[in-house]
Design a protein that fits this description.
The structure holds two protein chains of two kinds. By secondary structure, chain A is mainly α. Helix content of chain A is 77%, strand content 0%. The chains are: A mainly alpha, B alpha+beta.
Chain lengths: 314, 502
């Protein structure tokens, strides 16, 4: 296991360097001039020249890259061109928000998706299976922004149960924090629930046809025990790895959800940064997200090995 | 036991009164402001926050008259090159340091000389200043500049604590210290900006809230939903299409004011190769395009009639509007005749770049359909705003659908766009006659004299059509019914003096 992990971590290093080059150059390929945006409506030529100088935008691109990458190695991702706030500070502020949202969405997805998958596999071909499939398909097809606005109109405006948008840090007021995050997590979680349900269903279907399940039934075990203790346990192996990968997708999906519910997380930060050509922020975020994805992948692989002994020696 | 009960009752009473008094006003903004430093910031929503945070030397009335604020009065010398301002003597900054002529001098210096100051062009005419006494400052100008006083009604006139900005430098925006009714408490980017009442404010009796929280909520539907759910007390820039539904809602009220800005089409008339097309070369084609547009229908279709139609840099309600040139009726026959006169009777095809947001795209689609009937084929190039702006300033465009947020002084809405070499004259339009008229308008401080110059400039603009004006946005605020005392201003700011909640 240790060998596997160190191998994977070594491979991760060139990948991260590649990501940093891509992030930097793609950003520069974006049309539009950050200084024109920063200079404001008046576009004072003296100011534009001063800003270009200050942010070293006149330097050749590779000089800019090495300056940025060098600072990044020392943990300095630059400052936001829009608010002068250090990018690392911004990321430290926003990342916990998005992680809270993603974790809550994942819990919702698991609570809905896994039981639904088990039931629909067990009741394969019946109306229960069809209904579960229908719900899963709708979960995948309904756009986030539409579902979000409908939920706000129903739950906040009409019923007044939950706040329509905004954010409260978990450390300050846990209950209010969960209340503000509930709707966005539900919106974000539905599509993931559907994916999880489909995976659980197919894994359960194959497990339920296996010999040891027949043996368990032949032993006279209760159906409940067969289903939960014998079948689900084994069916969960692929589901766990899928879940780890889905977590990464949730972080990406948060971009839209945060925009609708005005949650000050990673997604909202990156959207605003792109529109304002806030280079340092976009680069910092994409780099961090890229690194997070790499580690999620390594974790998923490691979890797979832990759960499935047959994988360990390969 | 009795004492214990009494203590509990007293504590409860104290708690309930403090709860009753702790009144927070929640305002929904369309965007998240940029850096909270009046010298460095550039966003409209930032200025809305400053209206509660940073008082200015002078202010405007809803009718655009300039009135005293931190300055009690001002006087020009005969030649219009010296401005003497007298100041209030009862003002302190949020950090307790006094506001006086030395502070004004330090602020002028910062606006002019801070490397990243966005105010340089606004105070460029000030050459030097002299602190006469504690409450008097005299500024000497390089040339007469009638627009300067109006600059002091906005960010250039906002007074920051010199002690604070000397200590913080460019990072002043992370904890701004001014002399407004509220002081800075905290900011979480993209989430909220919280200000709390400043007890030593010189007009504290007019402020009825203990704190004000600004919440940026970009989506207009969600912003309105928050107001309806009670999570906001008021919001700015209600979508014109939501006006009817807010009017029908008993729990909400509407306020509006025609803005100082405009939206229009700027054809490239002289910036590089891209200007070599019938629209760029012939004012007749530009006039034909203008005549092909039914501005009322455009306003009805896109904004449900909530905005104001326009054909000049100033709205028809502005004192600077030239009444000799009313908003034209649509006239397809006249448009076709102009095209024929220009030698393109068979019609022309032009590309117009437009910001890729739903509203501006819809505006241009309506214009596209109308112009087609006159034989002008418009191809739309939808671009993200930063790209559009870069292409425009580089001359890579035939025409741009673009606007201007508007300034208090008329000069700010026309001079830079129409004078040769003007900073915002991207299409490099040149007409010496308009240069003369607009430069003269800067020299006199007499409104009647200036009005004549602007009338002359607008007459030339109507003939040359370097910008085809379409409409003037109307600021629309939606407020909870419990609020009273709000006054709508054409600069779109939210002034909380006299506003209260029942």
């Amino acid at each position: 296991m240790l060998g596997f992990l160190s191998r994977r971590l070594l491979i991760a290093i060139p990948t991260i360097i590649l990501i940093s080059i891509f992030v930097f150059s793609l950003q520069k390929l974006l049309p539009g001039d950050p200084v024109l945006v920063m200079a404001g409506e008046e576009r004072d030529p003296d100011l534009i020249a001063a800003l270009r100088e200050k942010y070293r935008l006149n330097d050749p691109i590779f000089v800019q890259y090495f300056a940025w990458a060098g600072n990044a190695l020392r943990g300095d991702l630059g400052i936001s061109l829009r608010t002068n706030q250090p990018v690392t500070e911004l990321i430290g502020e926003k990342l916990p928000v998005t992680i809270q949202l993603a974790v809550m969405a994942l819990i919702i997805a698991m609570v809905i998706g896994i039981p639904a998958g088990v039931i629909s596999a067990y009741k394969k071909g019946t109306w229960v299976d069809w209904l579960a499939n229908l719900i899963a398909l709708s979960g995948l097809s309904v756009p986030n922004f539409w579902l979000g606005i409908m939920l706000i109109l129903l739950v906040s405006v009409k019923l007044g149960w939950l706040p329509a948008s905004g954010y409260q840090p978990f450390s300050e007021d846990p209950l209010q924090s969960i209340r503000t995050m509930l709707m966005p997590a539900l919106v974000l979680g539905t599509a993931t629930a559907a994916t999880l349900m489909r995976h659980t269903r197919s894994a359960m279907l194959s497990v339920l046809q296996s010999d040891y399940v027949r043996t368990a039934r032949a032993k006279g075990l209760r159906e409940h025990t067969v289903l939960i203790k014998h079948a689900l346990r084994n069916a969960l192996v692929p589901v766990v790895t899928v879940t780890a990968l889905l977590f990464g997708e949730l972080l990406a999906g948060a971009v839209l959800t945060e925009q609708i519910f005005t949650i000050p997380g990673f997604g909202k930060l990156v959207v605003d940064a792109v529109f304002n050509r806030d280079y340092a922020v976009v680069q910092g975020i994409v780099l961090c997200t890229g690194i997070a994805f790499i580690f999620m992948n390594i974790l998923a692989d490691a979890a797979y090995r832990l759960l499935n002994p047959r994988m360990r020696d390969t | 036991m009795q004492i214990g009960k009494m203590l509990t009752a007293a504590a409860l009473l104290a708690l309930s009164t403090s709860l009753a008094q702790a009144q927070d006003l929640k305002i929904g903004l369309q965007d998240d402001p940029d850096i909270l430093d009046p010298d460095q910031s550039r966003t409209f929503v930032g200025r809305i926050v400053y209206a509660s945070l940073c008082d200015k030397l002078v202010d405007i009335t809803p009718d655009l008259e300039i009135v005293p604020a931190l300055a009690t009065g001002w006087e020009w010398n005969e030649a219009g090159t010296e401005l003497t301002m007298t100041l209030r003597d009862d003002v302190v900054f949020h950090d307790g340091t006094p506001f006086n002529a030395d502070a004004v001098a330090a602020n002028l210096d910062r606006s002019k000389n801070l490397e990243t100051s966005r105010r340089k062009s606004e105070v460029r005419s000030i050459e030097s200043w002299e602190v006469v006494d504690d409450t008097t400052i005299k500024m000497t100008l390089s040339a007469p500049d009638a627009t300067l006083i109006a600059q002091f009604a906005d960010r250039s006139g906002m007074m920051l604590s010199p002690t604070a900005f000397e200590a913080a430098g460019e990072d002043f925006g992370s904890a701004p210290v001014c002399a407004g009714p509220f002081k800075f408490k905290e900011r979480i980017q993209q989430d909220r900006i919280v200000l709390e009442k400043f007890a030593d404010y010189y007009r504290a009796d007019e402020i009825n809230f203990d704190s004000v929280t600004f919440l940026p909520i970009a989506d207009t539907t969600v912003r309105l939903a928050n107001l309806r759910a009670g999570d906001l007390d008021m919001l700015e820039r209600l979508a014109a299409t939501d006006v009817a539904s807010v009017e029908a809602d008993d729990g909400l009220q509407l306020e509006r004011a025609t803005s100082l800005g405009y939206q229009g089409i700027t054809p490239n008339v002289g910036n590089g190769e891209a200007a070599n097309n019938p629209l760029g070369q012939s004012n007749l084609v530009r006039k034909a395009l203008s005549l092909s547009i039914d501005r009322n229908a455009l306003n009805e279709v896109v904004f449900e009639g909530a905005f104001a139609t326009g054909n000049q840099p100033f709205a028809p309600t502005s004192p600077w509007y030239n009444a000799d040139f009313p908003v034209p009726e649509r006239d397809i026959e006249a448009a076709k005749a102009l095209l024929a006169e220009a030698g393109v009777a068979d019609g022309v095809t032009i590309e117009v770049q437009v910001a890729n947001n739903p509203v501006q795209t819809q505006v241009m689609q309506v214009v596209q359909a109308m112009a087609a009937e006159a034989g002008i084929t418009i191809e739309l190039a939808a671009k993200e705003f930063a790209t559009l702006l870069a292409d425009q300033s580089a001359g890579n465009y035939t025409a741009s659908q673009i606007g201007w947020s508007g300034r208090v002084d008329p000069d700010g809405n026309i001079h830079q766009f129409m004078t040769s070499g003007g900073g915002l004259n991207d299409s490099k339009y040149v007409n010496p006659a308009i240069d003369t008229a607009l430069n003269e308008a800067r020299l006199s401080t007499d409104p009647a004299v200036r009005k004549e110059s602007y009338n002359a400039a607008v007459a030339i603009q109507q003939e040359d059509m370097p910008i085809i004006y379409l409409y003037h946005p109307v600021w629309i605020w939606a407020l909870d019914d419990s609020l009273s005392g709000f006054q709508a201003y054409p600069d779109g700011m939210i002034r909380l003096h006299g506003v209260s909640q029942n």
